[in-house]
Prior knowledge:
The protein is α+β, with helices and mostly antiparallel strands and 75 residues long. It contains two helices and five strands.
Amino acid sequence: MRIRLRYFAVLRERAGCDVEDVEVPDSCDAMQAFRQRFPGMDLRVGFARNAEICAPSTALHAGDELALLPPLGGG
């Protein structure tokens, strides 16, 4: 199935774009989509499916937009 990934901060730099459409397995969840796009990357990532914060285990559906939210630094 096809979903849209939206990237921020370091993930945007790694991907080389802000948004891209990708093909994922039909039974994919948010964490699997992240691992498929960034294999081996050891980063704590937050997720938002269709503009709502979600768990890594949230099931994805064709046409969903998944925002990958890297940790924010601050002081």
